[in-house]
Every structure is written in structure tokens, then in C-alpha cells.
User: Which sequence fits this backbone?
């Protein structure tokens, strides 16, 4: 039972990290692009 | 402060300086796939075999998103792999002591700890882990987590060095080449050297012997040298034995101690040369190196001085003032080598210890704590130190740009809103994790049940634990019983945040920078070498670190220092 809790916690932490990748893509290069 | 100690400090810096360039050139060749590094002929077939087995297209580079996703996927799989080994170790080979599997919370903490290059240990290695767990579950991560750190640093440097590109390299190629051409060969030679100094390397069951007082004692053994070599070189820090580098089997003599300290800084130092080489501005690399050396020296001297001038409480008990504060220190190493080791291990994100930081004077203990909170960018964790330093350089040139009213620019790349946001996010994530978890620990009854000290020293214990976890350092103040569900879980999450939630903004920064063109150097360019730049960088690091953590440090070690001297009260 506790194994499931900790494995899901690990998966959750990694999933949030992957979501952050998408979040940080937004806005990238916006300023440089406008200048050019 | 004896002359021999000053000589050793000078020797340490001299040797570090001498190895920086050759090792930096080697790193440049390893991290540039078109180059042929030392041992290329011998290892090329193995390298190719890895790519075939893994299905890696070596010519195919990744964007920052692809690079980060590969790094996360690799870390997830290896983390789950280690969790399984630790839970199942009773059924696995090389377990002569028949140790049972670790509890779920301890396995969670340990798996994340080694995946993140932290090596926080809520257990005693010789009383908890089988040889299989130590070698396959943990030492494997010592290599791979170190290689991941170097790979991420290389990606960020490529982001600076390349003009209007989209890609940062190939994560799998970097991982394989760093492991194969840097870490493995260096560790083979280093392990043999350590064995020659008296370090053990065997698979024997523990020996029972009669101690001097007649009682039977168990002498733990095992494959120590092979783990210690990478533990130091990869700035991992996890000891084979609970006493870590204070144990005579894990640190036999003065020469092994010197080599271990040097190897903690070696790759971090060489990476500054790699930075200079990549951006074709070697003076910049050396200026970053100089900033690291200055910050290192200030910390080392303060810590050394503090331990040589202990409280009157010790001298009142008859301790010779000239002996300083020897509590918690190995007589073999003395004050200087204990404080130097403590400074180095926390400047880098190593975390190996040859003395108990908890027993340092309040100001002596403040130095390792503050080093970690600065972001471990003084040579730092392998790779992690360099990408942390580059983030602070971005902040420095942004602040300098604001001061003189020019568009901030770093190595010809304009620093714009997105870049500064990522740099600030990087700095805030660490502070948020350390301060939030420490606050939670200070008010949680469950957490406080594991605390063995009261008052400001108790706060320092909590603060050190979460600083060490978030900073991926792994060393500890010893007054905390951390192997409990609350501590194992929260420290595990803090280690994860401190590693991956800081790498992601660093790679996002790299991904944004790599798309920008490099403007030629002009009279209006901000100089990124020389005294002014070095001092600006040091100032930014100290002010950001100092201002963020000064309030909590004032309530911990600083107030403890004044209470101890004013009223003689200990905590």
C-alpha cells in the first residue's frame, strides 16, 4: 500500500516537471522575434 | 593558524589551478562529439555499442524541450529502478549480512537522494544496505547523476556559444561520453590510488573481533574504494559508512584526505575552462574561476578562524585554548583539515564529511550552511555549479545593465525579459523550498519529534536539513533523527525540487539564448572578464544569498553565537 503511495508521488513529481516544460515554452523567443 | 596549514591551503589552490586547464580541455573534447578525446580509440567501440543498444541517432540534436524531456525520463526510470532494488534487497545477491529491504519511506528518500546527486542518507550504510544495493542501486547513480549534471551544464554553455540555433546537443550522447571518457577512467585510476593508501575494497562478510575493552565488535567491510572515488569526483558525497570520510577505511590518511578534497573541486574547476573555451573568451572562464576561488577562501578562512576560537565554555573546562574546538573532529585531521573539508564539501554539492558539522561553533557551522544557501556555485556540484553560476551571471549583467541604463548583454546575447524570468525563477525555487519546508518543520509536532536540539540550534538543524536537501548537498547536522516518514518524505520532495525544478528553468534559459544571434563585441559591450566583472558577480551572489537567508540565519546560528558568548547557554 505504502509502495503505491510513494511510487505515485514520484510519478506525480515527474509529471508536474513535464508540465512545466510546456509552460516555459510559452513566451520563449517572443522578445527576440519582435526585435527582428 | 600554523604555517603548515597555510602551506597546504596554497598547495591545494596551486594543484587545483594546474589541473583546471588540462581537464578542461579534456571536457571540451568529450562534450564536443566531433572531437576525439583521450582514450577515444579504446572506448569508441563501446560508445558505439551503447548508441546501437539505446537506439540513439548521434547526429540528431535536441531542442531544449527534447533535452529536458530525455533527462527527466532517464531520471524517472533510474529512480524507480533504485527504489525497487532497495525494497527488494533481501532477495537480491551480495547480501552476506542478510539485510532486509528498506521501508517504503526510506527507499523513497534514498532513491530520490541518489538520483538527484544529493546522497542525503537517512540510514547508516554498513547497518542497512547490502553490497548489491550499494554498488548497483547507489554507485550507479553516483556516475549517472554526475553525468546528467555535466550534460545540463554543457547544454547551457552551448546555448551561449551558438548563434541562432535551435538545438543544444543530444542528451544521450553527452551522458554516454561523459560517463565513458571522464568519470569511469578517472575513477578506475583514483580507486586504485585510494586502495594504495589503505582504503578497503572487498566483498567479505563483516569481521567480529575483540575490542580493547574485551567486548566483541563488528568491523564492517565492503567495496569501499570504488564507491569513494566517484562519490568525491562526482560530488555525490554518500558515504559507504555512516561516519563517511571520518572513517579510517573511507579516508585512511592525510594524502587520501587531500586527494578527496581536490577531487571534489576538480571537475567543477575544469568546467570553468570549458566555458571559456566554448565561448571563445578564456578570460571569462578564468574570471568565473577567480570569483569561485575568492568566495571559497572567504568561507574557508572564516570557518577555520571560528573553530580555532571556541567559546570560553570549553576553555573554562580546562581545554587548552590553542587546541581550538576539537569536538566532533577527527584527531587525525585536526581543525584545519576538518574546516577546509567542510567548506569544500558545501561549496560543491558533495556532502561528504570528515567531521561533524553539528559540533562546529555556531559561526563555524554557519559557513557550510551559508555555502549551501548561496546555491553551491563555488565550483559546485559537477555541472550544477556551472549552470548555477551562469544563472547568476545573467542576473549580474541584468543588474549592471539597469545601473548603467543599457540593454543587458552577455557574451553578445541580449538578456531580455524571458531570460531574467527564468534566472529569477531558478533563484526563487531554491529559496522557496528551503524556507517553506523549514517553516513547516518548525511548527509540525511530528517533525519536531525527530529533533534532538532546542532553541536556535534546533532551528539550524531543520534549516540545514532542508538547505542540504534542496541544494542537493547531502551533508547533515547530526542532531536530527531523519529516518521517519515525515522527514524522509519532505526531504525527498525537497531534493527533487532542488534538482529538477531548477534544471528546467536553466534549460529553458539555454533554449531561449541559443536562438539569439551573437552581436560582435563593441565599446558598449559589458565586459565579462576582469576585476570589475568578478566583483560584480561576487556581489550579486552574496547579496541575493545574504538577503534571502539572512533573517532565518539571524534566528539560528547568529543568535546562538551571541547567546553562547553572553550567557554561556548551550542548546
Assistant:
Amino acid at each position: 500500500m505504502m509502495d503505491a503511495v510513494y511510487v505515485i508521488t514520484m510519478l506525480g513529481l515527474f509529471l508536474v516537471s513535464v508540465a512545466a516544460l510546456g509552460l516555459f515554452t510559452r513566451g520563449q523567443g517572443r522578445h527576440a522575434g519582435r526585435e527582428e | 593558524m600554523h604555517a603548515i596549514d597555510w602551506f597546504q591551503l596554497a598547495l591545494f589552490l596551486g594543484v587545483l589551478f594546474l589541473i583546471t586547464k588540462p581537464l578542461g580541455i579534456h571536457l571540451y573534447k568529450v562534450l564536443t562529439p566531433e572531437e576525439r578525446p583521450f582514450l577515444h580509440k579504446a572506448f569508441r567501440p563501446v560508445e558505439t555499442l551503447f548508441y546501437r543498444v539505446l537506439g540513439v541517432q548521434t547526429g540528431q540534436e535536441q531542442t531544449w524541450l527534447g533535452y529536458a524531456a530525455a533527462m527527466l525520463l532517464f531520471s524517472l526510470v533510474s529512480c524507480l529502478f533504485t527504489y525497487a532494488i532497495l525494497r527488494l534487497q533481501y532477495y537480491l545477491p551480495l547480501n552476506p549480512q542478510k539485510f532486509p529491504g528498506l521501508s517504503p519511506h526510506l527507499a523513497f528518500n534514498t532513491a530520490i537522494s541518489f538520483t538527484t546527486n544529493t546522497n542525503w542518507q537517512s540510514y547508516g550504510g554498513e547497518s542497512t544496505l547490502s553490497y548489491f544495493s550499494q554498488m548497483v542501486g547507489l554507485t550507479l547513480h553516483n556516475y549517472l547523476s554526475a553525468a546528467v549534471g555535466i550534460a545540463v551544464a554543457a547544454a547551457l554553455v552551448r546555448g551561449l556559444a551558438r548563434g541562432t540555433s535551435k538545438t543544444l546537443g543530444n542528451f544521450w550522447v553527452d551522458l554516454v561520453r561523459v560517463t565513458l571518457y571522464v568519470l569511469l577512467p578517472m575513477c578506475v585510476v583514483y580507486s586504485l590510488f585510494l586502495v594504495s593508501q589503505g582504503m578497503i575494497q572487498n566483498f567479505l562478510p563483516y569481521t567480529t573481533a575483540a575490542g580493547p575493552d574485551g567486548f566483541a565488535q563488528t568491523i564492517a567491510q565492503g567495496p569501499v574504494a570504488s564507491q569513494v572515488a566517484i562519490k568525491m569526483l562526482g560530488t555525490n558525497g554518500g558515504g559507504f559508512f555512516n561516519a563517511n570520510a571520518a572513517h579510517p577505511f573511507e579516508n585512511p590518511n592525510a594524502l587520501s584526505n587531500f586527494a578527496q578534497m581536490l577531487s571534489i573541486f576538480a571537475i567543477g574547476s575544469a568546467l570553468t575552462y570549458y566555458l571559456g573555451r566554448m565561448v571563445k573568451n578564456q578570460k571569462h572562464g578564468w574570471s568565473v574561476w577567480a570569483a569561485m576561488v575568492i568566495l571559497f577562501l572567504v568561507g574557508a578562512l572564516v570557518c577555520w578562524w571560528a573553530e580555532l576560537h571556541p567559546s570560553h565554555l570549553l576553555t573554562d573546562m580546562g581545554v587548552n585554548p590553542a587546541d581550538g574546538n576539537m569536538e566532533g573532529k577527527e584527531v587525525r585531521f585536526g581543525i584545519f583539515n576538518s574546516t577546509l573539508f567542510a567548506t569544500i564539501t558545501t561549496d560543491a554539492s558533495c556532502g561528504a564529511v570528515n567531521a561533524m558539522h553539528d559540533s562546529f561553533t555556531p559561526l563555524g557551522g554557519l559557513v557550510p550552511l551559508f555555502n549551501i544557501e548561496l546555491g553551491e556555485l563555488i565550483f559546485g556540484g559537477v555541472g550544477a555549479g556551472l549552470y548555477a553560476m551562469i544563472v547568476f551571471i545573467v542576473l549580474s549583467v541584468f543588474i549592471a545593465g539597469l545601473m548603467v541604463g543599457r540593454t543587458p548583454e552577455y557574451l553578445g546575447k541580449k538578456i531580455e525579459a524571458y531570460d531574467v524570468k527564468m534566472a529569477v525563477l531558478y533563484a526563487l525555487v531554491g529559496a522557496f523550498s528551503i524556507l517553506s519546508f523549514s517553516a513547516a518543520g518548525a511548527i509540525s509536532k511530528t517533525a519536531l519529534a525527530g529533533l534532538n536540539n532546542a532553541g536556535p540550534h534546533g532551528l539550524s538543524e531543520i534549516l540545514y536539513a532542508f538547505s542540504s536537501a534542496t541544494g542537493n548537498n547531502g551533508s547533515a547536522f547530526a542532531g536530527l533523527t531523519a529516518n521517519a516518514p515525515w522527514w524522509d518524505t519532505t526531504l525527498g520532495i525537497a531534493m527533487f525540487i532542488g534538482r529538477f525544478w531548477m534544471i528546467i528553468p536553466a534549460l529553458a534559459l539555454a533554449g531561449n539564448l541559443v536562438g539569439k544571434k551573437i552581436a560582435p563585441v563593441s565599446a558598449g559591450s559589458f565586459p565579462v572578464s576582469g576585476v570589475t566583472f568578478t566583483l560584480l558577480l561576487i556581489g550579486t551572489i552574496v547579496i541575493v544569498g545574504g538577503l534571502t537567508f539572512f533573517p532565518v540565519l539571524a534566528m539560528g546560528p547568529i543568535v546562538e553565537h551571541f547567546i553562547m558568548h553572553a550567557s554561556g547557554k548551550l542548546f
Observations:
- Chain B has 19 helices and four strands.
